[in-house]
Specification:
GROEL, domain 1, 538 residues, elongated, GroEL, three-stranded antiparallel β-sheet, GROEL, domain 2, 46% helix, 16 helices
Length: 538
């Protein structure tokens, strides 16, 4: 009689598990699926996606990170690819689709190497070597850009906007973006100091850059002036109201006279507050907290323009724009604390009243007012302009740019192949696969434009083998090969270096996973919430 071996369970019932090649295949398939989703949005001829959430709200965009964030992706490996897009967005502000498509392509090439029985750690090592070499190649290829080279900076902005909803108006929007970044530039560029306001009901060409701040607020009293020239602005982080006592307090009033004295005393306190503002020579008050009705009346009588309950971020930006100081104690307010603006006025934009603080001297915070026919249009224009601003900032920070249109990827791939020939061992195959993966960018640009990707990539390679072919890229509008730099298709070096390093790192991470254990959350039944492609894990 033979002893039956009893199976040993180390995981709770309902846990799903995939191991070995199955786990790798599932993970690679999930990552490739994410890349395929955004791939059709790449380039000037890229298409848009319409995303509808559970509430029925609609977003129409071809911004990679927006698409991936709105898709509510469940698969754990797919989520790792979304993180690549988020990192790219946070670091550069553009190039999210490039980074995701590149990660998908690296995994596709790795899959072919796995089929040839090359160990995942060898592929990961080869990819790491290739990524380091690619960074070195890119830094040598990059051209220097000076902050005074406004025309090149505008080309960078236009390249970022081409293929997005803003493309038809890219001339005016690129000028706004360049001017905005150059205005707020100090030792560093803080993009938080560029504020966006969006209003529907006008042409995109009527978008404007306000040398100052636009507040979504109206004046607090109708008797106040609508427009103040040579504005001296008091920025108050304190209420122009009488404070309530900290603890429960009773006041006993026995006669009408006592009541009258009490009211008069309140009035005097408020009047003194307004007198303090007047004595500082301020003619505009921007208050982060409330302003009492009576204080509003006294301010209006004094001809002072006032707004209340302004956000802290707007107060900080106002301080940067007007060079004023935010005062937290009214007693401390003096003429030195006041900010200056050429004009403060209330203007009706659409059907809302807004306060414009403009014509500031050398403002270190500005506002871009984006106009458009519908809400979906202005939202997409804002995303495009933010991408452009991110690109300009990235170029100014590093002082380096490269040509786009697939040129820099083909040149980097060409030099990586030469580097691979100097290696021995199986890592050489991984470096060659990395070079092949980089060519997904020109291939996708061609595909999205309805061109033959094989013909385009072949012609690009032969042009790059010639001496002056460094910036040869694909012109998706004519189907010809062009000098991308001369044609004004220019991108920050940072987009490419960040995309390559993020894509390579996440690819190495995914390749090293050979076991996926998914908990069912303590239920006895297999979870129905399992990400696609991970069911049936034993």
């Amino acid at each position: 009689m033979t002893n039956q071996i009893q199976p040993i369970f180390i995981l709770p019932e309902g846990t799903q598990r995939t191991t070995g090649k199955d786990a790798q295949r599932n993970n690679i398939a999930a990552a490739k699926a994410v890349a395929e989703t955004v791939r059709t949005t790449l380039g000037p001829k890229g298409m848009d996606k319409m995303l509808v959430d559970s509430m029925g709200d609609v977003i129409v965009t071809n911004d990679g990170v927006t698409i991936l964030e709105e898709m509510s992706i469940e698969h754990p490996t797919a989520k790792m690819i979304v993180e690549v897009a988020k990192t790219q967005e946070n670091e550069v502000g553009d190039g999210t689709t490039t980074a995701v498509v590149l990660a998908g392509s690296l995994l596709k090439q790795a899959e072919e190497l796995l089929d040839d029985n090359i160990h995942p750690t060898i592929i990961a090592k080869g990819y790491r070597m290739a990524a380091e070499k690619a960074q070195e190649i890119l830094n040598k290829l990059a051209e220097d850009i000076d902050e005074k080279d406004i025309e090149t900076l505008k080309k960078v902005a236009m390249t970022a906007m081409t293929g997005k909803g803003a493309e038809g108006n890219k001339l005016i929007l690129s000028s706004l973006a360049v001017e905005a970044v150059r205005s707020v530039m100090e030792d560093d560029i803080d993009l938080e100091t560029i504020k966006f306001e969006k209003k529907t009901g006008d042409n995109i060409d009527n978008s404007e850059l306000i040398k100052g701040i636009m507040l979504d607020k109206e004046r607090v009293h109708s008797a106040m002036p609508k427009k103040v020239k040579d504005a001296k602005i008091a920025l108050l982080d304190t209420a122009l109201e009488i404070k309530s006592p900290e603890s429960d307090t009773k006041i006993e009033i026995n006669t009408p006279q006592q009541l009258q004295d009490f009211i008069d005393r309140e009035e005097k306190i408020l009047k003194d507050m307004v007198e303090k503002v007047k004595s500082s020579k301020a003619n505009v008050v921007v208050c982060q907290k409330g302003i009492d009705d009576l204080a509003q009346h006294y301010l209006a009588k004094a001809g002072i323009y006032a707004v209340r309950r302004v956000k802290k971020s707007d107060m900080d930006n106002l301080a940067r724009a007007t060079r004023g100081k935010v005062v937290t104690n009214l007693k401390e307010l003096s003429a030195e604390d006041l900010g200056y603006a050429g004009i403060v006025e209330e203007i009706k934009v659409g059907n809302e009243l807004m306060t414009y603080v403009k014509e500031c001297q050398n403002p270190k915070s500005v506002t871009i007012l984006i106009r458009g026919g519908t809400q979906h249009v202005v939202d997409e224009i804002e995303r495009a302009v933010k991408d452009a601003i991110g690109d300009i900032a990235a170029v100014l920070k590093s002082g380096k740019a490269v040509a786009g249109a697939g040129s820099v990827e083909v040149e980097t791939a060409r030099q990586l192949r030469l580097y691979a020939n100097s290696l021995s061992g199986k890592e050489q195959l991984a470096v060659l696969a990395f070079a092949e993966a980089l060519e997904v960018i020109p291939r996708t640009l061609a595909e999205n434009a309805g061109l033959d990707p094989v013909d385009i990539v072949t012609e690009l390679k032969s042009r790059h083998d010639s001496e002056d072919g460094k910036w040869a890229g694909v012109n998706v509008f004519t189907g010809e090969i062009m000098n991308a730099w001369e044609e004004g298709v220019i991108e920050p070096l940072k987009i490419k270096t960040q995309a390559i390093s993020s894509a390579a790192e996440v690819t190495e991470l995914i390749l090293r996973i050979d076991d996926v254990i998914a908990s069912s959350g303590g239920s006895k039944q297999p979870s129905h919430q399992m990400p696609p492609g991970m069911d049936g894990m034993m």
